[in-house]
Amino acid sequence: MAMFTIGKVATQAGVGVETIRFYEREGLIKEPARRASGYRQYEPTVVDRIRFIRHAKALGFTLREIGELLDLRFEPDSRCDEVFELAEAKISDIDERIRKLRKMRRTLAGLTRDCKRGRPTEECPILKALESHEGESS
């Protein structure tokens, strides 16, 4: 079986070398065996695993959640129900973030409507609201 250097894995997976090292430290990919020269030797399957991680990150999963998904993916006794539950929880999390972002947007839009450009900054309603903590979005 052909083995890959870290640079080759990085290129094929579309990530940087430091990302691969980070994933190793986080336990998302196993640290590979090393040649006598000290170079890491990666199996080609690690490229697919890194792509899996990238796709999961793009959907908003945290590294902890991605670790759980990887465990489920490669555990023969796992059931799709467990993956479904993780995905449903992520959807709820995304919905909550969207709700908070909409509230932040409404607040900021209201502040910008009140702004009369050209005034000195000590009269700026946006800065005054930030100083007085008006319309906090938490």
Topology, element by element:
Elements: H1 6-13, H2 17-25, E1 33-34, E2 40-41, H3 45-58, H4 63-74, H5 80-114, H6 125-132
Helix pairs in contact: 1-3
User: Got a strand count?
Assistant: 2
Task: Note the overall shape.
Answer: elongated
User: What's the level 1 CATH class of the domain at 1-78?
Assistant: Mainly Alpha
Instruction: Give the distance, in angstroms, between the N- and C-terminal Cα atoms.
Output: 53 Å
Strand order of the largest sheet: 1-2
Q: What's the SSE pattern?
A: HHEEHHHH
Computed Rg: 23 Å
CATH topology of the domain at 1-78, by name, is Multidrug-efflux Transporter Regulator, Chain: A, Domain 2
Please give the largest β-sheet: 2 strands, antiparallel
CATH architecture of the domain at 1-78: Orthogonal Bundle
Describe this structure in words.
A hairpin with a 5-residue loop joins strand 1 (33-34) and strand 2. 62% of the residues lie in helices and 3% in strands. A two-stranded antiparallel sheet has the order 1-2. The chain is built from 6 helices and 2 strands. The longest helix has 35 residues, at 80-114. With 138 residues, it is mainly alpha-helical. The model has no long low-confidence stretch (mean pLDDT 90). It has a domain at 1-78: Multidrug-efflux Transporter Regulator, Chain: A, Domain 2, CATH 1.10.1660.10. The chain is elongated and about 70 Å long. The protein has helices at residues 6-13, 17-25, 45-58, 63-74, 80-114, 125-132, and strands spanning 33-34, 40-41.
